[in-house]
## 1
Amino acid sequence: MSYILGTNLVLNEQVEIALTRIFGLDPKKAIQVFDQLGLNDKIKVNKLTKYQIDRIIKIISQNYLVDLELVRIIQKDIK
């Protein structure tokens, strides 16, 4: 498994699909991230380089609320 933004991604899964496992990243957002990377649409998680993983993290962190950030906001709104 590959650990990205608090989520374990299945190594033999396509990146575009695997990104939807990240809390707060729906399929539409995952496609947007994937398109920004400019990668082959069939690439799997285990074929990503460290540079590509770093870019994924940077793109998601700069553009979307995900994982713990999103959980904190949801909990704050509930209180």
Note: The first helix runs from residue 15 to 18.
## 2
Amino acid sequence: MNIYGYIHLYDALRLYAIAIRTSMNITGNFTIYEDGRFVWNQMRRLTFPGLVSAEGVSSGTVMMDDLAERAPVYAVFYVPPNSDTVRKVNKIEPKLIEKCDGLKTKTGCVDLQITEVVTGFWPSPDGTLPQDEPSCGFRNERCDYTMLIIAGLMFLLLLLTIAGVFITVRICENRTLAKMQWRIYRDDFRVVNEDEVRSMIKQSIHDNINPFLGMSFNEKDEMVLLWKFCSRGTVQDIIYNSDLVLDAKFHGAFIRDITLGLEYLHTSPIGYHGSLTPWACLIDRNWMIKLTDFGIASCLERWEKQGLISTELLKDNDEEGKSGSLQKTSVLYQSPELLKNRALNRLRTVDQTWIKQTQFCRQMGDIYSFGMVMYEILFRSLPFPNSTNIDELVEHVSSGEKVCRPSIQDRSEIHPDLTALLLDCWNENPEVRPSIRRVRLNTESYLRVKGSLVDQMMRMMEQYANNLEKLVQERTGMLEDANARADKLLSQLLPK
């Protein structure tokens, strides 16, 4: 038997009975049931519990809306595909709206509310019940995007302005750089390997200065300084090669070429070298010294301090770390006053004034460096005691600590005046150090240098040829005398 139909009939009869009793209580008229409208008004917004049968079947709470119609209660159930279990996922219950007249609105003044929602079931990112309508509506008709559009357009305009300014600045910079005749683009040259070096050797264009070919920058995240190639390496390679025997002629020629190169720089618009070391003295195929790396040390240091460039030790193709050791050891060739100012510059921030060295101070720093290089050429070692750890000395000098100054370890092997010249070059007071012209004249006098090494070799060959010619004449005369004596003896022995 279908009990649900009887339950609803029971609820309807009870509703009518409650409305009749309420009407009688209000009016005291027992025939009020004849006034249908009055009884209907008593049914509006009436709520009472429904019937619960003996089997446990219930019709739920009976709620009448503002038009005296029952507001239904709904529930949503779900049956999985692989199961017969019925699962309730939510419930929809009515709620009367306050201050609402159904006679005017032609509605029951009921709002349906979703309750008892099961989580983790719905097809949403977090598994909760999705909204029945987006917050901005299905067609975004409820949201105003005017300010967002204006902000986006302004941001786009700002980006276009910044890009335009950047492109304009870059174009102006490129036009300025295009006017620099000394600039070389990175794609216009390549670093050759050792097998290709010999085919690229060219004659030097100056006696004692290695010409600066150009600079490549703002390309491929690197800056390259190009100098002319010299085939015989550096002075350091020669003086520390134990297989080579260097006599006084080599010493004098090397020192003469370095002094001539420094004198040229000191009297030129460049004014100074700035980073004179044995590896900054190149040797061409004619055994002539050519100074390189001049006038760039302070610029590179200042650019690095200001954040314009970032220097790194080039060790990728240097298995022995030679590049790094040379850069570290270079502090031994710098004068004390330059090291002091270098330490001060290291402590300063980018936006503070950079301490600039005067041209005289730089020139006197070159004299100090020349003394170190000349000592290495003469003695094939640094001017420090044999027990000195060079690596520790470099670390102390780089950190600004006071260390032992250079000194002549064996004075018996060089001229006393040359000893005094070396000590003058290493003087703590730069004003006491000699000028490069005085250094050149004194070294040429003490070492008896006449011309370059090639000139000396040519004179030696000419002298040897003259001596050989004289020796040939003497031996020819002796041979003629011997022939004459032999003829005379033979004539005496033969019968007449």
Note: The first strand starts at residue 47 and ends at 49.
## 3
Amino acid sequence: MPKYKGVVTTEDRFDASTSDHVHIKLVGMDGESPRKTVSTRHFSFPAGSVFKFELNCKRSVGKLILIELDKTPRLLLPQRSWFPAKIELESPEGETYHFPIHRWITNKESQMFREGTEYVQQNWRKDSLFGYQFLNGVNPMVIRRCLVLPENLPIREDLLFLHGGNSLAEEMQYDWLLAKMYVRSADFSDHQLNSHLLRTHLLAEVFSVSLLRNLPMVHPLYKLLVPHTRYTLQINFLARNLLISDSGVFKTV
């Protein structure tokens, strides 16, 4: 009878543990495994724990496509959320599969997880991934098609465009890679200054100052908002000194 060996790792963070029964089902190219309870008789998965289990099948399910996880509360115990880090499985053929999870599982509904891939590690130099990161990253705020070079751009077209159907990626591979790094760095700086610092921290400072100046401490609205704005002024003070001052990161890097 084929036997799958598994390892469940729970995140080492506050309240990530659960006392619920955890169940798993394997889905492969050649079939599915029965639903298996992987928890123990005692406390199931403490925070930071690594738990090993085995799952027997009547026949091999082939190459694993995904796993299904669900949990049910123990008798007379309340349901607890669970934050697993990953699940690793070794097939009877000796192949190892890695399923990263890194999310809360809060209810009884079955959740599916695909195997983690190393796509970015293997394809980070490709222009297709570079474009994907721009369109799906943290800063796709405004996208405009550039039909002609701007008049104030001090670069001639004969220096920018190549003849004969060639490209910089083909002729100067590492120069092209360095150029993409500069563009990514500039986009990151723009995101941190505009989207993060300006539209998050500095915008919240306006409401924090208004709250402190206009509402007494006994006001219900003050009590509601002050836990969320307690450290706004402090972190903005540090940001001004460390990021945008004359000796800050954006001036010196």
Note: The radius of gyration is 27 Å.
## 4
Amino acid sequence: MKKNNTELKQGNSFQFFIKNENGTILMSFIFFLPIFIGLIFLSFEISCFIQKKAKLSDAMEQATLALTVENNNIPSSEQEVKNNILISSFAHAYLPEETFSEPVITINSSASHIDYHADITMSYPAKFLNKAFNLISISDIKLDESAIAKKNTSITAIPTDVVFVTDYSGSMNRDFDGTDIDSTDISKVRIVALRRILKNLHNEIQQNENINLVGFVPFTWGTKRTIDNNNTTPTLLCHFPFVPKKHSPDGNYLTKYNISGLKELPGMDKIVSLNMINDINYGKLSDKEYISISEEITDKANYTDREKALRYLSRIYYVKLENVISPVIEENIDYEKTIKSINGSDHTIDIPLSDVRVNDFCLRTSMAHTFDSNNMDDSQFSKILNSRANGGTLISSGILSGNNLFKETNNNNRKIMVILSDGDDNDNTHAGDNRINKDAPYLNITKKLIDNGMCERIKDNDIRMVFIAIGYTPDENIDWKKCVGEGNFYLASNAQELELDINRALATEDTEVGRNTPKN
């Protein structure tokens, strides 16, 4: 009897639960919950698919454009292998974790153009669906992608002179994402990729009678010039291709800041500690001497004399720091005359490299220096190319040095300046000693030159400038697209894009290297 009562109660409870609206909703929710979860994971999988397809499409478009650069006609068997590697490298660069099939490349040649067609298949695990339906094994997702590029062949090549203006700052030792990497990933380093590309390109240029490499300008915060001294040790100069307000034949723009110069300033005859110190070697003022002199100047000199003297003393003492040297250089630039010199000639700021005590300037710790057509020796070029990248960035110092190299050529060839940089200028330095004037304006040397017409003046010399940003997006402070022209600005996010961009910049035909066409 008790059992029957229990069953009756359970039956009544179930009927009550079903009749209750809340129970009905809960049962429906429990029933449809797996379906909802499956749909959510499916939407994630579809989103992932769309993203991967877009990346693969971009990779294939860039890869087929690269084919137009690497191939001038139907390829040999050796070139076919290189083409396959090229397509695969672009795919892996955009989607490094995925698996790809062997690419299929078709090249068709006609009288007026060459078509490059490439196909590839990517496979990747269905991560989200496998999580949603972990009891069911779902095979990898396969994605086919193709691209077509066309290159016109009926236009005659034009003789071209080329100057490479190349960033050799310390950040070039990072990978294309801007992070420091260990030696096991050396192939991903910006400077390593650039060296490889330029070496290969130099070999190709030697076989191409239509392209002449007339200069190579590595730069940091300034460039380096070498002057031969008749079989003796060459003179090394920290070179800034800017016209000085007052030219110094000896280049004593930095060494003029010494104790003797300080003694000549107004009001310094009262400073006893100065009279007790004989002139010391450049950059060798001790901490004790600096403190003693600065305290006495503060106590005894009037306000006007004090500020000028302390600033001068600070430069004597802190000459080893970037934020002292760079303002000294900037203060000596005559911007108006510098702009005029682009189409003419004038003095420049040249400082003995031994006077520069900061490694960030003028490739001080590197064997690299400006390389022109007068010393275009293969072994020397290779040595410079392999030199250490270290220092800051002042792009205009490289650009104007490159412009000056073109002045040494005397022909009607087309002229191309390829500017390669991986970062904005080091302008986070005040145009005055931070310790004396913290509110001084920033330097912005390159911006001032551009605002005063540097780019237009260079173009007036019939020089086509190409700017390739390596692994970064330039700050809006400077509009490089406007400077070089919309079609001459490139962003290279990996080594493959960098190589493609450089080759596109050097196209010796009066047309594009190639262009993508719609797929059938």
Note: The CA atoms of residues 116 and 178 lie 33 Å apart.
